Each structure stands twice: as structure tokens, then as C-alpha cells.
Amino acid sequence: MKYSEAEKQIKALSSKYDINMGDGDFVVNYKNMLAAWVKGNERYLFYNNEECFKKLSFSDKLYMILSELASTPLDERVEDKEYYVKIFNGELGYLNIDILTGKMTAGSVCETEIFKTKFTNKAIKQLKQRGDIPLDWNKVTFEEANCQDFIADIMGIRDRTQTPVGKDKSVMINGIKYVPAKEKN
């Protein structure tokens, strides 16, 4: 179980639960009081105060979630980092893989239900083995993926109809022209 999955499941139990990663441990608070924590550097260990814990709402379900997280190998608890593969300079210079056909194209970092643009290290290794992707992997660059990198992700736009417009670095997305703010000197 990933930390993010555990957090989502716990917060679904009650809005009174709060999660933080204090000192690398997965800490669960209930109404701002320490309820339990899972050790971030040891497998199978989590702690709770039995008297306090049994009074919590949904304590049985919380216990099951925390025990599953504690039993998960340490390296499987964190999300795999994803990267954009930059194949040439420019906003449309990123590797895009068509999800239906598996074919490669260049485009933006905007990931959609049609194009995959974010890749884990494992996926990148698999891409390097493919003979149908004509890239010099020594010349591409890898940028850590961040969903805020592109305006379409921020705005929740999922249609891949984006067209570069002009020298002003504007972009046409779904028929709307977006012009970047002018930099102050």
C-alpha cells in the first residue's frame, strides 16, 4: 500500500483524521491528537495508544489500513517518480506515446486519455528497448513530472487540440488562445 492510498482511505473514514509524515513516519492525528503512527524506516511496526485508539471512530478500519501499510515493503510505500522525456527544445518537444497504438510523437507535457507523457524509470527502461522509438537516449533530457507544468493540466483540459500560435509563445487549446504574461524587466 502506498502512503497516498493509506491517507485517502483514512480521510474517507472521517474528516477529523489528519495525516502527516513527521520525521519520515506516517502519523495519524484525530482531532489534533496523536492517534497512531507507522514507522517509515521499519516494516511491520506501527504504534498506537490502546485506550485512545479504541475510542476513535472507525478504529477497526483504521487498524486494518495501518497494518496493511506497515506490512508493505518500505520501497513500495512511496509513489514512483515520473519524468517527462524532452526530445528537443520547445513546448512541444516532449515524448508522447499514443495509448491506443503505442506510436511515438512529439508534443506537450499535457497527459491525456490519448497520450502518455509521464514515465517512471521502469517505463523509460522499457522504452529504450523498443526498436520503433528512434531516439538517441544519450541526448534526451529527463524532467521531473509535475502536474502544474502545463496550463491544460491546471485547468483540467483533457482535449489534445493544442496548436502553437505565434512568436509571442501563445498556445491555442480547444480554440482558446492563451498568451503568457509579459515578464517584468
How would you describe what is shown here?
It is a single chain. The chain is of the alpha+beta class and 185 residues long. It folds into two domains: 3-76, no CATH class; 83-178, no CATH class. Helices cover 23% and strands 25% of the residues. A four-stranded antiparallel sheet has the order 1-2-3-4. It has a three-stranded antiparallel sheet with strand order 7-6-8, with no helix packed on it. Strands 10-11-12 form a three-stranded antiparallel sheet, with no helix packed on it. α1 packs antiparallel against α3. The protein is elongated. The relative contact order is 0.11. Residues 148-166 have low confidence and may be disordered.
Task: Report the biggest beta sheet as strand number plus sense, adding barrel if it closes.
Answer: 4 strands, antiparallel
Tell me the series of helices and strands, N- to C-terminal.
Answer: HEEEEHHEEEEHEHEEE
Q: Order of strands in the sheet with the most strands?
A: 1-2-3-4
Beta-strand residue percentage = 15-25%
**Residue share in helices?**
10-25%
> How many DSSP-defined strands?
12
N- to C-terminal distance? 49 Å
What count of helical segments does DSSP give? 5
Q: What is the mean predicted local confidence, pLDDT?
A: 82
Strand and helix layout:
Elements lengths: L2 H11 L3 E4 L5 E5 L2 E6 L7 E3 L1 H4 L5 H13 L11 E4 L7 E5 L5 E4 L7 E2 L4 H9 L11 E4 L6 H5 L6 E3 L6 E3 L2 E3 L7
Antiparallel strand pairs: 1-2, 2-3, 3-4, 5-9, 6-7, 6-8, 10-11, 11-12
Helix pairs in contact: 1-3
